[in-house]
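User: Fold both of these, please.

Assistant: Here is the first one.
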Amino acid sequence: MTDKQLDIPQHIAIIMDGNGRWARQRGLDRSQGHAAGVDTVRCITSECVRLGVKYLTLYTFSTENWNRPEAEISALMGLVLTSLEDEIFMKNNVRFRVIGDLHRLPDDVQQKLRETEEHTAANDAMTMVVALSYSSRWEITQAVRDIVQEVHDMQEDPKQMLNNLRNGGIRAEDITEDYISQHLQTAFMPDPDLLIRTGGEVRISNYLLWQIAYSELYFCDTYWPDFNEEDLHKAIASYQQRQRRYGMTGEQVTHNDDKLS
């Protein structure tokens, strides 16, 4: 096996776009496109496990999607419930996690999400993360609110405030990138190595804006229901051809790679 074959991204994030257009081309209802997209999720999840990917994060429903027609939202929520019945998590030893503004979801969906997280908590081949009722601006706004709330709680609790003063309190210089990252919904996992968007659009659509600062981006025209293992392999092959420099020169990266080899 070559070095390139070993260079599998540990975290792949996907914007699963094109379900509605796929359905319209076939004279189908948009909900049928979303149902076909669930089949693709099963296929890509199994292949990611086989390849050794450790985290797969799927943009399933954005906060902006609440503006869609009520019938489509209802169909999508129903799909969330039925797709979580799938045994793919246990069959592939996949842990399930969810991020997003879950309080906006129907009660039965919230309950099913919690149950699936608990049921799969011991699985360790890969973690599938579903971004549901999620947007990056919402997430960052919520992180700032949580930090402010921490400071407020310290001020309200005399013992906590005294301990805080003894420890120097939360100073402006304490608010680092790591500190903010710890307050994001994704604090439990590394940032994506590769972001894939299907469906032909070339934009990020308010998805993991903080986390993809140094991710490799891959856009393809294939609608999500048609995206298959071969398409995934093409995206990974493109990733493997790139040099991730993180602000360094190409020569520096090559030199560091040589020292590690």
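And the second sequence with its predicted structure:
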Amino acid sequence: MSVEIKEISSPSELKSFVKFGIELYKNNPYYIPPLISEEVATLRKDKNPAFGEECEAKYFIACKRGKIVGTIAGIINYRANRIWKNKLARFGFVDFIEDEEVSKALFDAVENWAKSKGMEGLQGPMGFTDFDHQGMLIEGFDQLGTMATIYNYEYYPEHLEKLGFEKSYDSKEFKIWIPEGVPEKHKRISEIVMKKYGLTIRKFKNKKAIMPYARKVFELLNDAYTPLVNFVPLSKRQIDHYVDMYIPLLRYENVVSIIKEDTDEMVGIGICIPSLAKAMQKAKGKFFPFGFFHLLKALKGKNDVVDLYLVGVAPEYQSKGVNALLFYDLIPVFIRNGYVYAESNPELEMNERVQSQWEYFERVHHKTRRVYVKKFA
């Protein structure tokens, strides 16, 4: 039977769009379902600030016999195209059954839309901003995902390659075991950089304490990540959006900022969140009636795993030992909280400076994900 492609837009249709992926992976032990309400809000033009400033999008579902068998979003981030001097559309939020007719129909729909907008190629999986999920899993299908990453079946990359997609770039993920104490080299470097640059470690006890620095966190990350491939700095409205999204999730003793004493300037930030992976699995996409209980328990209770969610150092302080200072502070906190290992989350394969910081820890490279690109003929 042929595949029917439908463009969707209403909130109820978007909910069905999101729920398809959760249903597709319902028996998979490694998949982390999103919260349906948050995923729908990301896709809605009236909820996501990226739309009003730089993006447009189209959403398609594939159906067979009246049943949804695949989903895909086409996204154009015009600001990213200006910064990186290309004319690429993005695909994201993509899921499909193991049927090449279905995957081809989905990607044909997005390609046709992208061409109608004057685009010259398609790249993904990516979201609206660099803080959305991106990168298709190509290694590590037997590893539990994280809240910040995509999980997909092994047949996904095979389908994309048959459709003419090629590697754009890869990201690596590491499992890092928490040591029994701070490595001596980190102690020595930390003491040197604090004295040399007049740095002090600032900790936060609660939301009230961190709020004066909340916007500065994302402004620093904008500066720190600007050189990275495809990165687009967040706008003021987007920063406000992510402050509202992420600050309530923090366990504040897992957050450290490095401040330059004489100016109160933030020069480094480490944000770590107790793993929400298993809690999200138990919630099954629903915040109510019981999803909030599982998430709260993961955030406030005992947890074996911590996600290294956001780590950034101001450009003028990179390669000067500030990263060592972050872990000098965080490792004792990790030990007190009983964490067994940390998840690095994705790190660009060419970012050797970031990956080299794990050399002093027991670690394993356990997942790889890929952003694909296809140039139109």
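The chain has a mean pLDDT of 93.
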